[in-house]
Design goal:
The chain is of the alpha/beta class and 482 residues long. It is built from 18 helices and 13 strands. The strands form two sheets. A seven-stranded parallel sheet has the order 3-2-1-4-5-6-7, with helices on both faces. A six-stranded parallel sheet has the order 10-9-8-11-12-13, sandwiched between helices. β2, α2 and β3 form a beta-alpha-beta unit. α1 runs parallel beside α2, α6 crosses α8 and α11 packs across α16. The radius of gyration is 22 Å and the shape is globular.
């Protein structure tokens, strides 16, 4: 990482605010670290503690955080009468954030009114407080630039389309970008009548209120949507804020647990590029029927693997969103009988959680079966690892399509007409294709090129470093707040 000269570290102060959920916490924390380490800022990271997962708490209270980065725990809000386990993720998230940010104005005043406030997509209450305190507010849009373009177009769709978006006869024509198939639309906009849509749309429609939009991507990865947002007449008409690609921002370091050490030691004994790493994100789960088919397909493929497994649930694919790092389970109780014993030596089954970046960076890892959350997708590409795309919720289906059809670093398994799960034969096919087939070799070559491109973007003369530097210069030039 490029280091800045440590002059006037305390003179320049910004605040960062992320909604709960590791998919948002991680990139905003990495941005905060870079502001401190590379650009000589003091950063106050505002932590919403209400219903925070164990993984979120551990990450934000790590002793390895740089000295200029201060985590401020916001008082927990009592939401016991407002939320329940039946609520969909974004609806519940919206309530938690709304109640937790009632203190935001007083907290920013106590912090001395920082030069800027950086929020994520679900903390738009920050716009109101920023206006009251004359603090510029920037949005860190944590998904892809392609999804940012779609999100900026979403209010127009909401105004012009009658009925449900998923019933549209043709793909959504996002201005200047690839069309989005209706089956790839994110869950939160599939039913415009429920509370989740209301909470989600209430936040995304305010995106253009930002003083600028940070994107966790880089120029070479997504040139088409970036060009569209900057130059297409539609985005100019709606007065889109300037976008700043500053990625890929991924976890640079993770603490290595005893289980991680076991995984890495096992990987040390395997041939290069021979192991498929399987993990469905920080909050993803499979149904019992799908888990069984998956295990059989993996065993039939006879490929080496590390599989981070979670107890199956038939309730929701995002069932562990609010309990990341807190679930305990015994894989033998739900995997097919004898699976662990039959695959011993070929594979390694890990309970619930593993150090994803450390495993992806290992020379023996040759493939990644992922839910295609944007953070995991970036981690895979920056490590030069091709993917099997297994989207579960949110914008993951659109990510999977882009990675497979446009970027060319992923393969998507096919469920088959009339089937509710992806069958074991299809799982066997895509695993073999990625790990030993010619198509897998082509994808691996493309992923290696993106790995080099990503590293170049973050260098001191790279496009993402310079993009962030332009904004920090503007902040440093601001007069001190009154």
């Amino acid at each position: 990482m490029v280091l800045a000269e440590p002059d006037s570290l305390n003179e320049h102060h910004v605040a960062v605010l992320a909604s709960p959920g590791m998919g948002h916490i991680v990139p905003l924390l990495e941005l905060a670290k870079r502001l401190v380490v590379q650009h000589c800022f003091r950063v106050s990271f505002l932590n919403i503690t209400t219903e925070a997962s164990p993984a979120q708490t551990d990450l934000l209270h790590s002793p390895s955080l740089p000295s200029g980065l201060h985590v401020i725990d916001l008082p927990p809000a009592d939401v016991s009468s407002l939320v329940n386990d039946e609520m969909l993720v974004v609806h519940r998230l919206g309530v938690i954030v709304e109640e937790s940010l009632r203190c935001l104005k007083s907290v920013l005043i106590q912090l001395g009114k920082p030069k800027a406030l950086i929020i994520d997509l679900f903390c738009t209450q920050g716009f109101d407080v920023g206006k009251q305190l004359s603090i510029p507010v920037y949005t860190f849009f944590t998904p892809s630039a392609a999804f940012c373009a779609f999100t900026l177009y979403h209010p127009t769709m909401d105004h012009e389309v009658e009925g449900e978006f998923i019933d549209l006869p043709e793909p959504v024509q996002v201005p200047g970008c690839s069309p989005v198939r209706t089956e790839d639309l994110l869950d939160q906009i599939r039913n415009r009548k429920n509370d989740e849509y209301r909470y989600y749309f209430g936040h995304v429609r305010r995106l253009c209120e930002a003083s600028g939009i940070f994107l966790n991507t880089w120029e070479e990865l997504e040139p088409v949507p970036l060009k569209a947002i900057r130059e297409n007449p539609f985005y100019q008409k709606i007065r889109t804020p300037r976008v700043y690609p500053v990625g890929p921002l991924i976890k640079e370091h993770e603490p290595v647990t005893e289980a991680d050490a076991e995984c890495l030691a096992w990987l040390d004994q395997q041939p290069p590029d021979s192991v498929l790493f399987i993990v469905l994100g920080s909050g993803g789960t499979l149904t019992a029927a799908q888990l069984t088919e998956f295990a059989w397909g993996l065993e039939l493929s006879q490929q080496r693997f590390i599989w981070v497994v979670r107890k199956p649930t038939d309730a929701s694919a995002s069932a562990t969103f609010f309990n990341v790092g807190g679930d305990a389970n015994d894989p033998k109780s739900y995997l097919p009988e004898g699976f662990v014993e039959r695959t011993r030596g070929v594979g390694l089954v890990v309970r619930s959680w593993a150090s994803q970046v450390a495993i992806l960076r290992h020379r023996s890892t040759g493939g990644f079966l992922s839910h295609c959350g944007w953070n995991s997708s970036l981690e895979s590409m920056t490590c030069g690892i091709p993917m099997i795309a297994w989207p579960l919720y949110a914008e993951q289906r659109a990510n999977a399509t882009m990675l497979a059809e446009e970027v060319g670093v992923a393969v998507k398994p096919v469920k088959g007409d009339g089937k509710t799960v992806i069958g074991r034969e299809e799982i066997e096919r895509v695993v073999k294709l990625l790990m030993e087939g010619e198509e897998g070799k082509v994808m691996r070559s493309k992923a290696k090129k993106l790995q080099e491109s990503a590293a170049n973007a973050l260098n001191s003369d790279g496009c993402s470093y310079e993009s962030l530097a332009r904004v920090t210069k503007q902040w440093k030039d601001l007069a001190a707040p009154i």
